[in-house]
Amino acid sequence: MLAGYLSLFCSPGSWSQAANACDLNQDGVVDFLDVQLANNMALGLVPCTADVAGPGVCNVVMVQRVTNAALGGACVAGALHSVTLTWTASASPNVIGYNVYRGSASNGPYTKMNSLPVAGTTFTDYAVQAGQTYYYVATAVDGSGNESAYSNQAQAVIPSW
Predict the structure, then answer these.
(1) Using an 8 Å Cβ cutoff, are 158 and 128 in contact?
(2) I need a labelling partner for 127 at 20 to 30 A (CA). Which of 13, 69, 112, 118 fits?
(3) Sign of CA dihedral 89, 79, 103, 39
(4) Counted domains in the chain
(5) What confidence tens digit (pLDDT) does each residue in 5-36 have?
């Protein structure tokens, strides 16, 4: 089992709006070609280079935003809300990364947020909803898949706007 203690901190993310973020193929117009490219990115058929719903986030939200812009609506870019977590690296040997867990109640239960261990000491959660409170913990993971105990719990209160 891994020893050590992770200190977990969270900070609110920012909301931004870029005038041309939905122009995925950068041809100066948002149209069906951008919608097709958005779908292909969300399906993993092409690399995800979009920064519409957050940097490197290619999901149904991004596809819907590009589609809305192609139909004449505004291109709403950026995560409306996000939580950025940072922690101190584990001093234990053989640590290959970290797992990040989120819950909607203090002290859990928690759901793992990442599919592969996070290599660094920062994780941004773009899947938060306005007006909600979330609780986060992290674990260190070694090369055999063993996890440390949960870190201290960090709380994030998302504004209701």
Answers:
(1) yes
(2) 69
(3) negative
(4) 2
(5) 455 555 555 444 345 789 999 999 999 999 99
